[in-house]
């Protein structure tokens, strides 16, 4: 049966305070999608555990993450907003998918290669298996579209491979999801090293702008952003990657094209440009921060919301999980 609305699913790890990379690259696109699609958004706490976490910090950040998603405009009247670990079907489906996933395809994931390097000798099995958990997330809800940043593209492709293989080996079971990317900001880079992705877990706090950074902190981070010695605001990712990244941020915040930005800063120095980028980011973040500061005070409200939404998500997930259990030959 054709669905009346397509299903949208995405998630975010509570592994640090969200950055403008997360926001401009992915989360921001989740908001308007609510009016057109059946949307489900998850705080992926089990994904966060694939690298060492301080337990009390993780718990705190889970609440903060829910409050932040509400603050940017995720509306629980329209969408399901829940915490991944509250729905046990995710781990169960992960196991069943593991039984059909190959070591080779998981070893090729670039994020695994990068992150495992940082874990040294004792690489967690869960880090290797991370994309299979992500596949379970997506496949449990018969997802059509997955709005993410560019760095998750390879994972979504793997989800399609796993789903397609399962459908072939058993019979049509899973919907094959498509990744969805916004028009700009899909890959924001570190402000301190434009060859690296902006990441909420970077040790250098000047490398990223967090969604809760105070205006003055934001301005200073842009002042310190790495540029080059060419001295001209123009979009050239190869020879001016720092400036190109700042242009991406500015364009995402103001809606202006690269051409318009080049014109705006013709004959002006990097100092003026960086200041303008800082102001544009402050303007986008300030109203979100005000709402966030209110929401984070009411923990009981967040607890209620998490509970209700987990129940809604669980009902949907169970339906698919039951089908998968039957297909692979489990009893009951
Ligand atoms: P996570 O928590 O690393 O990032 C959340 C979202 O932010 C995007 N993103 C960026 N976009 C642009 N520039 C950047 N520098 C940048 N950094 C992060 C990510 O692409 C992502 O869309 N595994 C996922 C969470 C997840 C998920 C899912 C996503 C779990 N289950 C199911 C989609 C569907 C992750 O670690 O995202």
Give a short overview:
With 332 residues, this protein is mainly α.
What small-molecule ligands were found? tryptophanyl-5'AMP
In round numbers, the mean pLDDT is: 97
Strand order of the largest sheet: 1-2-3
- Secondary-structure-based class equals mainly alpha
What does this structure look like?
This protein has helices spanning 20-33, 45-48, 55-72, 89-98, 103-107, 110-119, 125-139, 153-169, 215-223, 241-254, 258-264, 270-295, 299-328, and strands at residues 7-12, 38-43, 80-83, 145-147, 178-180. It has 332 residues and is mainly α. It has 2 domains: 7-186 and 299-328, Rossmann fold (3-Layer(aba) Sandwich), CATH 3.40.50.620; 205-293, Tyrosyl-Transfer RNA Synthetase (Orthogonal Bundle). The strands form 2 sheets. Strands 1-2-3 form a 3-stranded parallel beta sheet. Strands 4-5 form a two-stranded parallel ribbon. Strand 1, helix 1 and strand 2 (38-43) form a beta-alpha-beta unit. Helix 10 (241-254) packs across helix 12 (270-295). The longest helix has 30 residues, at 299-328. The protein is globular. The protein binds tryptophanyl-5'AMP. Tryptophanyl-5'AMP binds at residues 9-13, 21-22, 25-26, 44, 47, 134, 137-138, 146, 148-149, 151-152, 185-188, 197-198.
């Amino acid at each position: 049966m054709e669905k009346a609305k397509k299903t949208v699913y995405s998630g975010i790890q509570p592994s640090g305070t969200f950055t403008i990379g997360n926001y401009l690259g992915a989360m921001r696109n989740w908001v308007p999608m609510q009016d057109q699609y059946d949307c489900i958004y998850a705080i992926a706490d089990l994904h966060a555990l694939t690298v060492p976490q301080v337990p009390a910090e993780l718990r705190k950040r889970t609440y903060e993450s829910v409050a932040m998603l509400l603050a940017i405009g995720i509306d629980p009247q329209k969408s399901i907003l829940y915490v991944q670990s509250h729905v046990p079907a995710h781990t169960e489906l992960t196991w069943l998918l593991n039984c059909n996933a190959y070591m080779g395809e998981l070893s090729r994931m670039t994020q695994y290669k990068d992150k495992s390097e940082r874990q040294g000798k004792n690489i967690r099995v869960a880090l290797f298996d991370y994309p299979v958990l992500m596949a379970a997330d997506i496949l449990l809800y018969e997802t059509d579209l997955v709005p993410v940043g560019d760095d998750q593209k390879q994972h979504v492709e793997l989800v399609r491979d796993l789903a397609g293989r399962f459908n072939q080996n058993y019979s049509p079971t899973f919907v094959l999801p498509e990744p969805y990317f916004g028009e700009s900001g899909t890959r924001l880079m570190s402000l301190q090293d434009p060859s690296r992705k902006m990441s909420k877990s970077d040790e250098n706090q000047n490398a990223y702008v967090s969604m809760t950074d105070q205006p003055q902190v934001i301005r200073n981070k842009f002042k310190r952003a790495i540029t080059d010695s060419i001295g001209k605001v123009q979009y050239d990712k190869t020879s001016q990657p720092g400036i190109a990244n700042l242009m991406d941020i500015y364009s995402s915040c103001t809606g202006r094209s690269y051409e318009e930005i080049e014109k705006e800063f013709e004959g002006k120095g990097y100092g003026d440009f960086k200041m303008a980028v800082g102001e544009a980011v402050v303007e986008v973040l300030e109203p979100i921060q005000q709402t966030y500061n209110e929401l984070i005070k009411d923990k009981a409200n967040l607890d209620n919301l998490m509970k209700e939404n987990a129940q809604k998500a669980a009902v949907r997930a169970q339906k698919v999980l039951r089908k998968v259990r039957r297909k692979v030959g489990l009893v009951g």
